[in-house]
Amino acid sequence: MVFVWRSFSRFVEVAPVDRGWLVLWGQYHDLGRRRELAGNRTYLDLSGVRRRVADSVFELTHDPSLVSEALVHFDRTTFPPHDPIPAAEPL
């Protein structure tokens, strides 16, 4: 994972994958032994990832101050260079 945001039992993670950037979000249960995904999405660029991070944190917490905190952390993260593989032509 390149970016991880956690607040109590909630998390948002970002990782580079072949087709772009994968964003995972959800909650931990049983003191972190079980992870329940609320969603996942792949984006081609970091601007889409940033928006998904904000939306995911708000979805999980309903707290705008935690959204701001997550975005500050996101903006301070150094992401590695990543060139996604272009999508294949539709058949």
Characterization of the model:
By secondary structure, this protein is of the alpha+beta class. Helix content is 32%, strand content 36%. It is built from two helices and four strands, in the order ββββαα. It has helices spanning 46-61, 64-76, and strands spanning 3-7, 10-17, 20-29, 34-43. A four-stranded antiparallel beta sheet has the order 1-2-3-4, covered by helices on one side. Helix 1 runs antiparallel to helix 2 (64-76). The radius of gyration is 14 Å and the shape is globular. The N and C termini lie far apart (33 Å).
How many individual β-strands? 4
**Could you state the order of secondary-structure elements as H and E?**
EEEEHH
What proportion of the residues form beta strands (DSSP E)? 35-45%
The biggest sheet amounts to: 4 strands, antiparallel
Radius of gyration (CA) equals: 14 Å
Strand order of the largest sheet: 1-2-3-4
Oligomer: single chain
Give the structural class: alpha+beta
- How much helix, percentage-wise, in residues? 25-40%
N- and C-termini, Cα separation: 33 Å
> Given the C-alpha coordinates, what overall shape results?
globular
Quick check: average pLDDT? 93
Low-confidence stretches: none
The number of helices is 2
Task: List the SSEs and their pairings.
Blueprint: E1 3-7, E2 10-17, E3 20-29, E4 34-43, H1 46-61, H2 64-76
Antiparallel strand pairs: 1-2, 2-3, 3-4
Helix pairs in contact: 1-2
What's the quick description here?
The chain is an alpha+beta fold and 91 residues long. It is built from two helices and four strands.
